[in-house]
Design a protein that fits this description.
mainly beta, OB fold (Dihydrolipoamide Acetyltransferase, E2P), five-stranded mixed β-barrel, two-stranded antiparallel ribbon, 1 helix, extended
């Protein structure tokens, strides 16, 4: 026999658990709904401040405040999810990742942290040989020849 607390042979908690396992859990980052698939998610983000590389991936990591990007509607255009409530902190564990405010990043959700796994290539300053200027600004000019 089934009682009012059961759906067929499953209890409501059983149905929620089946849904979570099949569809994955979700969480919200501000206005962005993030489906969790096996606990790992990756997103484009914009650095809100300058950040430096880690000195040691285990104990010398650094952090950077970020805003996630979301698709703005049709096509592949994106927009920044802004506001203090949508500010996240990402962890930089690479000894080679650095950037300035406005730098495009890809962050990956690994367990309890947003890990920076990719940083947009810094723009080379063509006025001086090999000087790197971190920026996401684009230029129509081709990159300079390597030194």
């Amino acid at each position: 026999m089934t009682g009012p607390e059961q759906l067929a042979v499953f209890k409501p908690d059983d149905a929620r658990e089946i849904k979570r396992r099949v569809l994955g859990a979700t969480r919200w980052i501000g206005a962005v709904r993030i489906p969790e698939v096996d606990g790992i998610n990756s997103f484009y983000a914009i650095a809100q401040e300058s950040f430096v590389a880690a000195t040691n991936p285990l104990t010398g990591y650094t952090t950077v405040s970020i805003h996630m990007l979301k698709y703005s509607g049709t096509g592949l255009d994106m927009e920044e999810v802004t506001g203090d409530a949508n500010l996240e902190t990402a962890v930089v564990r690479s000894r080679n990742c650095f950037g300035s405010a406005g730098t495009l990043l890809i962050v990956l959700r690994i367990m309890s942290e947003w890990a920076v796994i990719w940083v947009d290539c810094p723009e080379l300053d063509s006025s001086s040989s090999g000087t790197v200027t971190p920026s996401i600004a684009s230029s129509d000019a081709p990159p300079p020849d390597p030194p």
